[in-house]
Amino acid sequence: MGTALYFDYRSFQSLSDPIGKVDIEDLERIHVWITAAFVGLWITGITLIYIRTGFQLEAFSPKLWTKISIMVLMTLNSFMVGAFIRPMMRNNMMRPMISLPPMQFAVATQVAVVSLFCWSSGLLLGSSAALKTAPWDVLLVIFPIWFAVLTIGGHLTIVFVRRRALGHFAAPAE
Fold first, then answer.
1. Contacts of range 131-135, beta carbons closer than 8 Å, 24 or more positions apart
2. Is residue 9's pLDDT more than 80?
3. What's the pLDDT score for residue 44?
4. Residues near 133 by Cβ (< 8 Å), separated by ≥ 6?
């Protein structure tokens, strides 16, 4: 979790810096590490589900279904990093991310938002005693709202940062 969030944070801090070879190498190294971690999470998770439920669906709690859903979303997001973000960064080497075409930048932002949502939601589910036994009517409100807040907040932040940075780049030198 820390590795992914650190890379997302570092990427946000360097939006105006040209994408360098080191950035791409770091992403590729981190992506391999996270992929290996996901394999481990799936193996241990499926094992624990079997031990606790025997794969009897009626024994699955709302929290367990939520955790499985978040893990599926996190895995799909990892595929997006491999299929879209890595090639996009390679294709735009020496160009600041903030100057990418709006659609590419929006997709990259959403991939980062999904990452933040998944990691923070997993942490919340794992650490909250209240959510341990929360019914569907609680979980089906909390997590979509959390996803919407992060998505809207993330994109508004990026729009603000992008406009400010691109305006700064376009300003005449004094």
1. 131/63, 132/63, 133/61, 133/63, 134/62, 134/63, 135/62
2. no
3. 97
4. 61, 63
**Token match 């391999």: residue?**
32
Map tokens 């949502």 to a residue: 117
pLDDT digits 0-9 by tens, 136-155: 999 999 999 999 999 999 99
Report the alpha-carbon distance of residue 131 to residue 139 in Å, rounded.
8
Neighbours of 26 (CB within 10 A): 14
Q: Helices 102-127 & 62-80, crossing angle to 10 degrees?
A: 150
**What pLDDT is recorded for position 166?**
73
Q: In the prediction, which pLDDT does 173 show? A: 46
Cα 145 to Cα 114: distance, rounded to the nearest angstrom = 13
What would the two tokens of residue 103 be? 């659609």
**95 near 133, Cβ under 8 Å?**
no
DSSP 133: T
Residue type at 144?
A: P
